[in-house]
Amino acid sequence: MTTAASEEWITSLGIDLGTSTTKLIVSRLQIKRTANAFSMPKAAIAKRTLVYCSGIYTTPLLGDNELDYPAIADILEREYRLAGISFDEVKSGAVIITGETANKRNAAKVLHQLAERAGDFVVATAGADLEGVLAGKGSGAEARSLEIKGTVLSVDIGGGTANAAFFRQGACIATITFRIGGRLIMLDNEGTITAVAGSFLPWLKANGWDLHSGSRLKLEDYREITDRMAESLLSCLAGRGSGESDALLLVGERPAVLPAADELMLSGGVAALTEEAEPTRLEEAARFGDIGPLLAGSVMRAAAAGGFRQVAARQTVRATVIGAGMHSTEIAGATVHIPPGVLPLRNVPVVKAELPPAVMDDEGRLNEAVVQAMASAKALHSAEEQAPFALFLDGPGHCTYAGLQRLADSISRGWSAHFPQQAVAVVVCRTDMAKALGQALQRRVAERVRVVCIDQVGAEHGDYIDLGEPVGGTLVPVVVKTLAFSRPPGG
Amino acid sequence: MEAFSDEAAKLTAELAGSTPARIGVGRCGTRPLTRTALQLRMDHAAAVDSVYGVVAPELLKEMGLFTVETLSGSKERYLRRPDLGRRLTDEGAALIREKCIMKPQVQVVVSDGLSAAATCANIRDVYPALLDSLAAYGLQTGTPFFVKNGRVACMDHIGEILQPDVLVMLIGERPGLVTAQSMSAYMGYRPRFGTLESDRNVISNIHARGTQPVEAGAHIGTMLAAMLEQKRSGTSLVL
Fold first, then answer.
1. Among A3-12, A66-75, A176-185, which stretch is predicted with the lowest mean pLDDT?
2. Whole-complex ipTM
3. Is residue B108 domain-resident?
4. Three-state secondary structure call for residue B88
5. Which residue among A149, A153, A238, A247 is the one 20 to 30 A from A213 at the CA level?
6. Number of separate domains in chain B
7. CB-nearest partner of B203 from A40, A432, A443
8. pLDDT value for B110
9. Is residue A52 within 8 Å of A96, Cβ to Cβ?
10. A491 pLDDT more than 70
11. Disruptive mutation site among A32, A435, A443, A447 for chain B (greatest number of B CBs within 10 Å)
12. How confident is the model over A30-58, as pLDDT tens digits?
């Protein structure tokens, strides 16, 4: 039987602005639309190929609290030249700002400027959860969890944070982030501290270390600190009780229960150092001017002592940037409703309506769910003035024609009541129903609003979604992300 | 039953979850367990029922479809003689000549085919979604009707009579033991006697747990619009 397939390669970029280092990768994604003679067309990213890795740059800073945008833009330009690509051929990808760098005064501005400059559909991302997920995809932890049909704990330890993500059979089921990294304490060859990250001081104090620039410590003292950091990290991840002061290491919330992991995969700059012998002299320990090499040794010992079965990562130091470049983009279902000229749309906040079958079958409850989502959408600010929000419909799995009509009535009523001014309305469905629902909605709003309806994408309340220009007419690249800078309260 | 290790039980559950086929169901000696045997007989009975079933006249009325028959006469002859299911009776041909708009842009035909149950289960969802989609593309539809005991190729006979630009036939699929409610949509550009199978397009496996019926209806509209634009169908159609 014949199979008609169309495929296109797009260039996808990843940039990671980390606490200590900045790096870039270029990848090629093969977007494939398959339509065999029997079934509806399907869309998927069939292949992801890494084609270029930049060198590893020290993240350019101006003073202590500001990113040096011109210097970062220079890196971008130089690396594009070296990679042999032009700005207009980059069609997808993500810039992620991570660790301590995300706390700089101009972080949000630099991030958005850089994403705009980098290419047509390069999105700005940040947030510890997302960083952990992308690192776990880039390191190979996600793929490994499918391979072993079990749970793999990915821990990416960089300069400022350690981002952990649990992957169970290919799906991320929990994330947690710690203020643990190789660059939290800086030192010189003699063992004199040159800087301590402010965010790290409370934990140090609580553990009886009163450190500041100029303090002079011995190798053993430093090792005691990094041992303690590593133990806190791994005992918390193993679900064992950790010291009270360890709450000071958490960035954001700790999930109530962490899953049990079958394997541990370490990545990030600190993990890259674990391949080398542990330093035995201060000069060796301080060869990068920070505690990274010592922390690497401590983490290895704590992992072994904690009984973790450790597996090697496919990528260590570049895990996050590879995740951002190669794994942030997904493709919506092949049958969609998109009026010409509306896409791309960037940074559209997501509100969720849960539509289990019981709600779909009950007109009152259906209206309530839709109205509630619209009401919470009013508090959001979208980067797209035309499209104030994206309505994400979770469920119903199977939708009858009658159910579809009720749903379309309910949504279009909500739009005219709550968003009479919107020019573009975005609906994202989990169930394969976007073309039918899009047509049903468009008929109801006529020319007044342009309806964009895509499906087979998952999202959560409070996420942001970017919809790219369709590739080959109907294949819509989608990036769902958490933007820590502008996350709306509650949900 | 032999005791499974945890690992084996996990793997079996995972494999069973990945397919609707009857795997990992256990055995007693060389034979299936009673519950497996009963389930199999029940599913087989449902498949047989769907072949011999009829589409209720009330449903056809609700959908606004009148009925014509093929030369098959009875279900037994329909099953033994596929060729008879490809021709309308003289009365049927006369009836559509009398009732239908001639040379429509889009002709919609519904048939029970090998599963009346499939028509009953899906027609309320696929058909109106298809009409909406055709309206969204600004396409004109002719007069729809129902063919009792139809085979796919009766599209050609109907095409000869009504001369539509494109024709879509929503027809019950041969039932299997997984579902007896699966429907297909066969489509063709200017179907006439002698049309090759490779000139037809099909979307199959339309049912609640397969290709979503309303989305299939919407997509059939897109395919018919593409056929009209490209003036062709089948393997050479570009979608």
1. A3-12
2. 0.89
3. yes
4. strand
5. A247
6. 1
7. A40
8. 98
9. no
10. no
11. A435
12. 988 887 667 788 888 999 999 999 999 99
- In tens, the pLDDT along A273-287 reads 998 899 999 999 999
Homologous superfamily in CATH for domain A3-126: ATPase, nucleotide binding domain (3.30.420.40)
Could you tell me the residue ranges of all domains in chain A? Answer: 3-126, 131-323, 332-486
Residue type, A299: V
Cβ atoms B225, B165 nearer than 8 A: no
Is A109 an interface residue toward B (CB < 8 Å)? no
Rounded CA Rg of chain A: 24
Query: Does residue B91 lie in a domain region?
Result: yes
Q: Please, which residues have CB within 8 angstroms of residue A446's CB and are 6 or more apart in sequence?
A: none
B212 with A399: Cβ contact below 8 A: yes
Per-residue pLDDT at A490 = 32
A443 CB near a chain B CB, below 8 Å? yes
Measuring CA to CA, which residue among A108, A163, A164, A92 is closest to residue A328?
A92
Give the span between the Cα atoms of A31 and A97, in whole angstroms.
Answer: 27
What is the full DSSP assignment across B2-63? PPPPHHHHHHHHHHHHT-SS--S---BTTB--HHHHHHHHHHHHHHHHHHH----HHHHHHT
Q: What is the pLDDT of residue A55?
A: 93
Interface of B with A in 75-134 (CB under 8 A): 124-126, 128-129, 132-133
B210 in any annotated domain: yes
Conformational region of residue A462, where left means phi above 0, alpha means psi within -120 to 50, and beta covers everything else: left
Q: Residue B154 is part of a domain; what is its CATH number?
A: 3.40.50.11240
Q: What value does the mean pLDDT of chain B take? A: 94
Residue-averaged pLDDT of chain A: 90
Hey, which CATH number is domain A131-323, 3.40.50, 3.20.20, 3.30.420, 1.10.287? 3.30.420
- pLDDT exceeds 80 at position A385: no
Question: Does the beta carbon of B12 lie under 8 angstroms from any beta carbon of chain A?
Answer: no
Interface size, chain A vs chain B, as Cβ–Cβ contacts under 8 Å: 80
B220 touches chain A (CB under 8 A): no
At A152-199, the pLDDT tens digits run 999 999 999 999 999 998 888 889 999 999 999 999 999 999 999 998
